[in-house]
């Protein structure tokens, strides 16, 4: 197809949109409603997955060091922990710092245990490369020299990993189902607009127009319908998400977790909605045209 022919098809697609005003408006409205639903649910699912991952990554192994262990022995233990292939980082927390954490969480009455009365242990806080590796690392650390005990959350951590896996599995399933529904609704809406113009297609065939000459304006029209249908959902989702982000981040700040930042996240959602609208609109038109172009 040369540039002049493509320009002709492009102009014809715009004229068709104007000429079939009510059908075009109905198609764009249907696409807009569908894409709005897709965008909102995708935003919810992606943020649920983000928070779930943050919670999962917050699981660490706390290796309590035997009381009376010397600095040299503690360094030996650190080197042994570092040699584990699943270990990402190790942070040392003295028993003094541990007591400060307890006082900050449970009240000033625990200041009575300051100094020599401090019953807590020095701790190595170990972070693994993958959250699920905490169980294996804790079991290995438990049998190391100079270790009093190794904690990772036990059954609670395992339950957390199971919940996060379930969120990801169901989120993926719902997302795929949602895209399927979007494809079905948008393509059928485009098909209805083409069915209403079967006489126009028949006349073009009678005067000798080729299949490609007939097909391309409709494909471009479907793409325009998808593009225009994506504009309103993008505006609603962008403004709505920015407002919701500001409201929720105030309450999430104290937890250490956060939602996906609007800048990059919204750009990705916007581009995805545009692509879904254009691709499904164009494909819906191409598939719907097949029955009219059979010889």
UniProtKB/TrEMBL annotation:
Keywords: Cell cycle, Cell division, Cell membrane, Membrane, Transmembrane, Transmembrane helix. Residues 174-294 form the ABC3 transporter permease C-terminal domain. It is a multi-pass membrane protein. Its main location: membrane. It is found in: Cell membrane. GO terms for cellular component: plasma membrane. The keyword Cell membrane applies. Pfam families: FtsX, FtsX_ECD. One of its GO terms (biological process) is cell division. The chain crosses the membrane at residues 21-46, 170-190, 223-245, 265-287. Residues 59-148 form the FtsX extracellular domain. It comes from the Bacteria. InterPro entries: ABC3_permease_C, FtsX, FtsX_ECD, FtsX_firmicutes-type. Belongs to the ABC-4 integral membrane protein family. FtsX subfamily. Part of the ABC transporter FtsEX involved in asymmetric cellular division facilitating the initiation of sporulation. This is Cell division protein FtsX. It comes from Liquorilactobacillus ghanensis DSM 18630.
């Amino acid at each position: 197809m040369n540039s002049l022919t493509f320009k002709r098809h492009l102009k014809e697609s715009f004229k068709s949109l104007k000429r079939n005003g009510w059908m075009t408006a109905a198609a764009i409205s249907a696409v807009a409603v569908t894409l709005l639903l897709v965008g909102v649910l995708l935003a919810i699912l992606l943020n649920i997955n983000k928070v779930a991952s943050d919670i999962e990554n917050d699981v660490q192994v706390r290796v309590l060091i035997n009381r009376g262990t010397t600095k040299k022995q503690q360094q030996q233990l650190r080197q042994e922990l570092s040699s584990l292939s699943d270990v990402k980082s190790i942070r040392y927390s003295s028993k003094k710092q541990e007591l400060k954490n307890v006082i900050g969480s449970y009240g000033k009455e625990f200041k009575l245990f300051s100094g020599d009365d401090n019953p807590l242990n020095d701790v190595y806080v170990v972070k693994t490369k993958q959250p699920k590796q905490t169980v294996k690392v804790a079991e290995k650390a438990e049998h190391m020299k100079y270790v009093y005990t190794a904690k990772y959350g036990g059954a609670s951590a395992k339950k957390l990993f199971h919940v996060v896996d379930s969120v990801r599995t169901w989120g993926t399933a719902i997302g795929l189902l949602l895209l399927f529904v979007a494809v079905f609704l948008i393509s059928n809406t485009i098909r209805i607009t083409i069915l209403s113009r079967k006489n126009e297609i028949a006349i073009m065939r009678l005067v000798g127009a080729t299949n490609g000459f007939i097909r391309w304006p409709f494909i471009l029209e479907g793409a325009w319908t998808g593009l225009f249908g994506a504009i309103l959902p993008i505006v609603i989702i962008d403004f709505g998400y920015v407002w919701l982000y500001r409201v929720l981040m105030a309450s999430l700040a104290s937890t250490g977790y956060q939602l996906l930042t609007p800048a990059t996240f919204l750009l990705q959602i916007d581009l995805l909605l545009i692509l879904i609208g254009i691709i499904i609109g164009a494909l819906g038109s191409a598939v719907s045209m097949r029955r009219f172009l059979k010889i």
